[in-house]
Amino acid sequence: MKNKNRNRNTEPSIAPGMDDSEELEQDATKDEIEKGEYTQVTTLSFDEVDPS
């Protein structure tokens, strides 16, 4: 039996027209948290410093 999720797109996606920085930084409301209707978002940034 094959895993049905194996062929799913594993790349993150955002709905068309969504403002990434504004929408993703909003906190879930208490009601959304109670219903489990939220997604935890982790932001990773790479701060490169020139070694010279």
How would you characterize the largest beta sheet? Answer: none
| Average pLDDT level | 75
- What fraction strand? under 5%
How many strands appear in the DSSP assignment? 0
The structural class is mainly alpha
End-to-end separation: 55 Å
Number of helices: 2
What is the gyration radius calculated from CA atoms?
Answer: 17 Å
- What is the 3D shape? elongated
Percent of residues in helices: 10-25%
Which regions have little confidence, pLDDT < 50, spanning 5+ residues? none
How do the helices and strands follow one another from N- to C-terminus?
HH
List the helices and strands and how they pair.
Elements: H1 20-24, H2 30-35
Detailed description of the structure:
Helix content is 21%, strand content 0%. The protein has two helices and no strands. The longest helix has 6 residues. The model has no long low-confidence stretch (mean pLDDT 75).
Question: What brief labels describe this structure?
Answer:
single chain, 52 residues, mainly alpha, 21% helix
Could you provide a short overview of the structure?
The chain is an all-alpha fold and 52 residues long. It is 21% helix and 0% strand. The longest helix has 6 residues, at 30-35.
